[in-house]
Amino acid sequence: MDLAFAVFLQVATGVATLLIISLGLAVIFGMMRVINLAHGEFLMLGAYSAIISVRAGLNIWVAMLVVAPIVVGAIGAAVERVLIRGLYGRVLDTMLATWGLSLALIGIVTMIFGNSVSGFSAPLGSIAIGGYRSSSYGLFLIGAAIVLLCGTWAVLRLTPAGLIARGTMQNAEMAAALGVSPGRVYAATFAAGAAISGLAGALIAPFSGVVPTMGTLYIARAFITVLTGGAAMLAGTLSASALLGSVSTLGTYFTTPVLGEVIMLVVAVLLLRLLPQGITGRFFRRAL
Amino acid sequence: MIRRFPWIEIVVALLLAAISAWALPRLLPLYLLINATIYVSMAVLALSLAFVWGFGGILCFGQTAFFGLGGYTYAVAALNLTGTSWAVPIAVAVPALFAALLGYLMFFGRVGNIYVGVITFAVTLILFNFANSTAGAQWHIGAAPLGGFNGIPSTPPLNMPGQPGNALAPEEIFGVAAISLALSYVICKLLLHSRFGRAAVAVRENETRAELLGYDVRLYKLGVFAIGGAIAGLAGMLFANCVFVSPTMFSLFYAAQVIIWVMVGGLGTLVGPMLGAIVLQMLTAWAGTLKDVSPNLILGVILMAAVLIIPRGILPTATEAAARLGRRGAAR
Fold first, then answer.
1. For the segment B66-118, what is each residue's pLDDT rounded down to a tens digit?
2. Strand partners for B141
3. Chain A residues within 8 A of B119 when measuring between CB atoms
4. Of the partner residues B126, B132, B259, the one whose CB lies closest to the CB of residue A220
5. What are phi and psi of B144, to 5 degrees?
6. Which helix (H) or strand (E) element contains residue B196?
7. How far is A73 from B243, CA to CA, in rounded Å?
8. Looking at this predicted complex, what is its ipTM?
């Protein structure tokens, strides 16, 4: 019983992690149809901003939950202005340009901080479940995933800004005719997506280790999750993370972490063969 | 468009390969010759992507998956069999089959073009992580240890077909590489001239229209993708011969480089990407000697600049500029 609960907790943590690292990507892709191949590097920058603030003596929670999203959100806004703005509607070129950005960011961070692994330990210690011990940081991650998901949903569904953003994505010209500046909405959405990615990077930093190339460890998973999710970005990301996160955590539990990832990829590719439009292409179509 | 049989291109390619296979080993010192072999194997890889992306219209971000698979297959087969006579065809066949399987799942699932890019990208990353994790004695295929991060340093060099004891010298391996490049180019040219190739280009131009004319779009894409996988496997085999196989063959660094060579060289041409591969590798090698600048940064900046400034690539832009100048001259 205790073992079952411990495994369940591990699966839930895996699902939450997947959701957290995919959400920023899902927002940028789902809202703007921009495939951001530099997503992994946004995670990496979030982790670095957190670690640097912690070293500078800032409280660890402030560093993770406040500094990281603000820094990466600002970087995202700058990137949107310089690189993405000229390329809207040219999906392929955007992908290539963000890939270039990804390589350049890895290069710059390597030049500044070197190629060594640094990190900070997970706050919050551990809890006992019967005879097993589990990190309470995992519980925190589950909570964070729920808060992030609900928060994004609430902003998009319940606030005027969310309404304007959704309207602009549906029909930019109509929104412009009604007095909204689409350029500004795009910039804000991209920055928001980047901020979520930065927060995600800071949240995973305690257990992933912080290296310039850490983004490459997560980006494949994040992309597969968003693609498997399909058109409805929040429902899709949630259902895809639930499915793929369970598969990969259980695969990891029974084999090795890498085989767990391979199993997850195979499941995702087979799933795309069956549901080419992703999960929300067939189920939960009306969801956000 | 007039369909002229590509005699001139074929003869020029074979002549160039024969001349360089004869002359370069006599001109260059050994270490430069080995570098040249690497460049040529990468040009084969660039050619494979130029074919798949430029003519099949398939956005493959993970061409390195087949490249690395070709290298690993070659090393594993060569270590398990006596000599490399059979390892070479196996190293071409396995990536081709893998590409066919992946292509079946993607094209017959009618996955969108952009998704194809993301899936292939994820596949090469996963193979990279997987190959990296195979350290330790329990990871081996027959007599070949996979070696994790270190790869397989004991990758044996090619030998004369059918004579396992008679290994080729680096000079001869360069010759093999140059001729492989020329032959791959000729095969691509012939394919594009054939009915199959013209139908594949039609699919690239307008999928719906090709479908309405009765062509099975999925089958043509699958064919192009598998052929590209085979050529990339050949490139991996050649690369394994001048360096050795290691997980870096699957890495994003290489995956990005191939895309950059094709983009910068010119999408929709075969010669442009090959030239792009050779020139840009020289540039990267030079950048590697700079102390304070990361090669990743330089590659990234080149890629961004290529997208923003010359989205069509150097060769088409230059050809067009030359044609415009020629017309202007004629008008005068």
1. 999 999 999 999 888 877 888 899 999 999 999 999 999 889 887 777 778 87
2. B144
3. 224, 227, 269, 272
4. B126
5. -100, 115
6. helix B195-205
7. 42
8. 0.77
